[in-house]
DNA sequence: CTGTATCCTCCGGGATACTG
DNA sequence: CAGTATCCCGGAGGATACAG
């Protein structure tokens, strides 16, 4: 989770600072290397711990647990334990999480529209600066 | 900038993995403690270096420079130098940046709608776990 | 005024081993 | 199966000083 501005981050005037704060709230929830992946992986029904571990390539058991706990803490995931043996645990996205998932669509759209332009800008910049 | 999955991050099936990747592209552009603040501060016309330094509370000169360079490199900001003495430098948001700025609106909306629910979930979780 | 250059700290996250 | 517990490392970012 990136260290962010908790106090009034931008001091323009009017509503810009609160806008910044609000956006930052979301980003803090979604920051971290794995949160988005988990959100997406749980967006279509309950998923078990090991399923997640397998579907999210490269995640360590530790980070999977930690990220799940954070998402659960924020009310984005529900953790249900079946007291069987061996144990079974299911994680389910809440409505709030699903709404977030949809809100990310406009960002996805932005990235798709401008991905090549951004790559080009990057190339140009890098070629110029050396 | 948070360390993220560059390879296929989520292996569900169909388009979920590409969706994840695309979202992550944006987040990488916007991650870092200060990028959003700068985006917002430059969203309403050219701003000078020192103006930014003053309006974005708590930012160090180093991070201001670094973040500005990254945003410029991605084509989100244009840096214009007036060869006067003392020097004057203006940063202007590009159209791409402005579009991004607007796309963030749905996230802001999400945060506003659920902020209290999230806070409540957090409280409940913390009270339960001890 | 607009930056660079260094040094240093903190913490997100990986690797590995152990457990109910 | 679903986690904890430790140890460790790299890099984001702060503080400070210097410069064109």
From TrEMBL, chains A, B:
The keyword Protease does not apply. Residues 21-119 form the HTH hxlR-type domain. InterPro entries: HTH_HxlR, WH-like_DNA-bd_sf, WH_DNA-bd_sf. The keyword 4Fe-4S does not apply. Pfam families: HxlR. SUPFAM superfamilies: Winged helix' DNA-binding domain. Keywords: DNA-binding, Transcription, Transcription regulation. This is Helix-turn-helix domain-containing protein. It comes from Nonomuraea antimicrobica.
């Amino acid at each position: 989770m990136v260290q962010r501005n908790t106090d009034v981050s931008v001091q323009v005037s009017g509503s810009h600072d609160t806008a910044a704060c609000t956006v930052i709230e979301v980003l803090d929830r979604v920051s971290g290397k794995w949160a988005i992946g988990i959100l997406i992986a749980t967006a279509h029904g309950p998923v078990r711990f090991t399923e997640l571990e397998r579907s999210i390539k490269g995640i360590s058991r530790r980070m999977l647990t930690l990220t799940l706990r954070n998402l659960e803490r924020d009310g984005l995931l529900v953790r249900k334990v079946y007291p069987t043996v061996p144990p079974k645990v299911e994680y389910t996205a809440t409505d709030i999480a699903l709404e977030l998932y949809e809100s990310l669509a406009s960002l996805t759209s932005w990235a798709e529209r401008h991905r090549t332009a951004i790559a080009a800008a990057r190339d140009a910049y890098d070629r110029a600066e050396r």
